[in-house]
Amino acid sequence: MKRKRLTQLFPFLLPVRRTQRKLFFYTEMYFDRNHYAKAKAPEFLPFCVYETKSKLLNENTGMDMRYQENKVFNLRLAAETVNGLLIRPGETFSFWQRVRYAEKNERYKDGLCVVNDELITVPGGGLCHLSNLLFWLFLHMPLTIVERHAHEIKDFPSPDEDEPDGVDATIHEGWLDLKVKNNTNLTFQIEIAIDEPYIYGRIFMDQAKRYSYEVVNRDKSFFKKEGKTFERVSVCRQVIDNESKQVVSEKLLYTDVFEIGYVLPEGTAIADEKA
């Protein structure tokens, strides 16, 4: 049996623990010698090199839809902190280094969040939607992943059936961050816009690029362990020559294993844990 944390045994200690973690979290960031991206530009760089969109509301959560609407409110606050942000050569992007300022003028509303493996409502819930979108944008750029964390459990199916699995990036202030570093001689710029029913993301660059990137799944499978269903999937990035449209190379970025918290479609092949 998994050993319970002290804050699970004594919930009244949780606010103290959160404050302590945030203090250590930002103090460590202050002294870690990284140059964090902070500058914004009033105009976007000349070359839009990748864009994507994601449906804001997910009807598959099984929870009251007002929490999805609250999520959209929270996303609007958080998006303003990264919209227009420049990531210059040698700089590191940190999700929390920017988004922690989102509540300066308005407070977050209650949204959905997974805490201790349970789907609950908390102030600021739903910000993973933004970190997921940003990570998806970054995967299509020659940026180096410094820190990224997968969700341990996928509670409901994605509203976009064409989206590859294992491309999420969960965040938790004081504990989990999303960080990428620009080890190139190029400058990147983020645009985040919300125009319901979608949230839009774009990446601009100061130069036209010769190569594009495609993110694909490999070796996707499901298996059972201790009565639970898990998915294992590899995430690979292809480099494509823009002129010839040919795949130049393919690289394995990482392999994710996570629990499936919903009923899979009938007929899905699920291996026994021994296999």
Automatic annotation (TrEMBL):
| Pfam families with a match to the protein in the record | VanW
**What residue ranges are annotated as transmembrane?**
none
Q: What protein am I looking at?
A: Vancomycin resistance protein
To which species is this protein native?
Desulfitobacterium hafniense (strain Y51)
Give the lineage. Bacteria, Bacillati, Bacillota, Clostridia, Eubacteriales
